[in-house]
Amino acid sequence: MSAEIEIYKGLLTDIKNRVRQGQLKVNLAANAEMLVTYWDIGRMIYNQQRQKGWGKGVIPKLAIDLKNELAEVKGFSERNIRTMVSFYTEYSNFSIWQLPVAELETNTILQLSVAELENDAITKLPVAQLEVINQQLITKIGWAHHIILIQKIKDLPIRYWYMQQILKEGWSRDTLLAQIKSKVHERQGALVHNFDNTLTNSHSLWAKQTFKDPYIFDFITLATEFSERELELELVKHVEKFLLELGAGFAFVGRQYKLEISDKDFQLDLLFYHLKMRCFIVIDLKKGDFMPEYAGKMNFYCSAVDDLLKHETDKPTIGLILCKGKDKIFAEYALRDLNKPIGVSEYELTQLLPDDLKSSLPSIEDIEKEFFEPNNTPENEN
């Protein structure tokens, strides 16, 4: 009987996976069809504007008429139609739009898995093929994300990079806006590290794509003088936002994680496990600038975690030292001859106003008094 139950469970799992695959395929096909339609509408409007000399005034009229004649169809506001025209002009030369949607679904180049995006396999392709893939990435991105990318990112290669991250990380619109605001494309992989010397090529590339410099902790506010424990507590207090800044794949294991080594207790500031890289990550927080001795201490921690916690199928533990500042040369020398993979990054905080500056600012009561003073009303102005 137990064997039949296991067989049934396997069947149930297979069916659920197949249903999910089907749903994903339907959603991708629907999204691709919508994007092709919007691109084509943008093309028609743009060409008429060029050929007939119509100005921008045609768009408000189209928005009204389409709303009246296609009342059941959403998405034809004046603003959205203008974006359709921009969508066409941004990608007017792309051959991807000449393919039927059915071919978009089955085209082998489009079958980019998350793993392929994560290990950067597409960047090793010939330039011509890479350009085709970049074009085809567009069909996998939702319209709302496209609006943000067109409005915020003018450089096309950077825009492609954000498209890849949207697919890899599953960014919502709000997350995408936050990441663009923080210029995450400039921060990714910018840390000082020794990954090339301590990890395999594929794992080193993955690690460099995972870590950033600097990390932006704008969700916490600390006084100018703060302790490392205060920083640690604030990060854990806002662990969801902390994980979002760290990136997809980080799972929080614990703070002040205790390791017993030769009858002595050692505590790790923060311990994570990365579900995609399949390794532990030790984070050491420093309130000041990087010092060379921090690297040796982190090397010790990584060795201990590899011996005491790491499973035989896990990848080597990675250490990340987060400092308020760093001298790049110091950090490079400190990491050069260590045998454990370690990175050094800076972090940025939102600082509280100093007390002397606070005292110079008006209170809420002063502002209200000034605002509501009868002599300061518009009617009494000359």
Automatic annotation (TrEMBL):
Domain YhcG PDDEXK nuclease stretches: 208-362
Domain of life: Bacteria
MF-aspect GO terms: nucleic acid binding
InterPro entries for the chain: PD-DEXK-like_domain, tRNA_endonuc-like_dom_sf, YhcG_C, YhcG_N
Pfam families noted in UniProt: DUF1016_N, YhcG_C
Domain YhcG N-terminal: 14-112, 133-187
Regions that span the bilayer: none
Protein's UniProt name: DUF1016 domain-containing protein
Organism encoding this protein: Flavobacterium pectinovorum
